[in-house]
Amino acid sequence: xxxxxxxxxxxxxxxxANTLCVTRGGVEIYVPHNPSSVHDLARIVGLRGMEALCAExxxxxxxxxxxxREPHKERVHQLxxxxxxxxxxxxxxxxxxxxxxxxxxxxxxxxxxxxx
Length: 116
Hints:
Helix content: 55-70%
Structural class: mainly alpha
Radius of gyration: 15 Å
Oligomer: single chain
Shape: elongated
Largest sheet: 2 strands, antiparallel
Distance between the termini: 24 Å
Number of helices: 7
């Protein structure tokens, strides 16, 4: 589920929304049913922020904007050839996972079909 920046700001406040986007923007984030102070989300947005996310998105995967506009096509290709996962590439390059799939030349559903 895509969560827009305005919606994220409404849920978390501007500072925590920006922090979440910088650290996990562009890749799926699982929001558990119950907040926990030891969960990665709590480390990023604090326990109150995690409580707010759980109240809104419990048990769902969300994707938040990464706020970057610079494509890194060459670097993505290089990391793909090294066998890195699309998620890890997105985090390393600061792009969305969707962009990595685009650069790889196939959508997520197509890749899932080739794995079967």
